[in-house]
Amino acid sequence: MTTVLKYYRPYIPFVVLILAFLFGQAMCELALPGYMSDIINNGIVKGDMGYIWTTGVWMIIVSGCSVACSIIGSFLAARTAAKSAKNIRSTLFKKVTNFSAAELEEFSTASLITRSTNDVQMLQQATVMTLRLACFAPMMGVGAVIKALNTSVSLSWTVGLALLVIVCIMMMAFFLVLPKFQVLQKKLDKLNLIIKERLTGILVIRAFTTEKTEEKNFDVANLDLTKINVFVNRAMSFMMPALMFVMNAVSILILWAGAHLIEAQNLMIGDMLAYLQYAMHVIMSFLYITMMFIMIPRAAVSAQRIGKVLDIESTIIDKADPTQLKDPKGLVQFNNVCFAYSDAEEKTLSDISFTAEPGKTTAIIGGTGSGKSTLISLIPRFYDATEGEILMDGINIKDITQHDLREQIGYVPQKGLLFSGTIGTNMQYGKEDATEEEMTEAAAIAQATEFIDEKGQGLDEEVAQGGTNVSGGQKQRLSIARALVKKPKVYIFDDSFSALDFKTDKALRDALKTKVGDSTIIIVAQRINTIIDADQILVLDEGRLVGKGSHEELMVDCDVYKEIALSQLSEEELERGRK
Question: What is the pLDDT of residues 408-436, one digit of tens each?
Answer without folding.
Answer: 998 988 787 888 888 888 888 878 888 88
